[in-house]
């Protein structure tokens, strides 16, 4: 309230409305002991400012202030008019005057705060608000404050308990043992999506059995669609390579189909299913009943949907999704089938490019399958600008090792 803008308005003027007062924090018991002062704006020429008033009230305990122009003023003041009637008991007549309502709020001045305010000034905004709620808050606000404080205490107790439990585990087992447990858990997580592994096998072909990749019924169903590979010519292979209608691994292997009719048919069926698996891995959400087209046998479509997708709820319906874990499972089966095709040694880099995986992820899957990984040398079809990795399945199987991510974690420790 600036002295240049506001002036004391003590004596009432005839054209000014009567003042009605309402206290926001209760009712007045002794109205005669309260002193009121009205201030008006000096700018009487301004159409709006000339009607602005500030009402100040003083009691023995508190001071109150209110006005008729701030945003806190009730909207009903501008929507209706108020009147005060003064009854003359002698004549029985009543004089009616215009009136204006002021809602007075307690004014907490600085001198009401104790002199020692160092602790108060150090408190955060939230702590200061909590003190206000404790003193002036409603019952609902106080209940919410108590509930929040109880939750904070519960969280502190929980964090302390977790910290102590973690410290006890570290003291009991040691950091090295915990890292080994993490490595083992990581290997087990990947192993869930691998083909069944026979660690006691006497021959490489029995480690990942062909029957666990393709059942006899599924293998028989591949005879018709794989016939296009059995009778394929060099010109057709060149045309398919130009069109990129099949993955690189399949196009390369089609150039080396055996002359023996039975062996040629077997490799053609394996290549057709491997190509279908890789194309299936490109899908995200399966919306069609037969996503691989009508030429794909029903038993193969059912195998793909059942074994290599996970169910999810989307847009009000249950759908089949190829998640990251399912893509890893498809990759593992692709590697196993490629090992059977290539006498248990295959180019992992070509397969990695076909399934569109990062090299680190491909190496994790290969090592989880107990393959020996080495650099490729002098193999046909290799690109000079890329170092290829060979995966070899040989006996005895090597021990499972930590993935690259686990090695990084150990280095950080």
From TrEMBL:
Organism taxonomic ancestry: Eukaryota, Metazoa, Chordata, Craniata, Vertebrata
Swiss-Prot/TrEMBL keywords: DNA-directed RNA polymerase, Nucleus, Transcription
Gene Ontology cellular component terms for the protein in this record: DNA-directed RNA polymerase complex; nucleolus
Family under the similarity heading: Belongs to the eukaryotic RPA49/POLR1E RNA polymerase subunit family.
Protein name: RNA polymerase I subunit E
Pfam families cross-referenced by the UniProt entry: RNA_pol_I_A49
Compartments, as annotated in UniProt: Nucleus, Nucleolus
One of the protein's GO biological processes: DNA-templated transcription
Single GO MF descriptor: DNA binding
Region (Disordered): 379-413
Domain of life of the source: Eukaryota
Major place of residence: nucleus
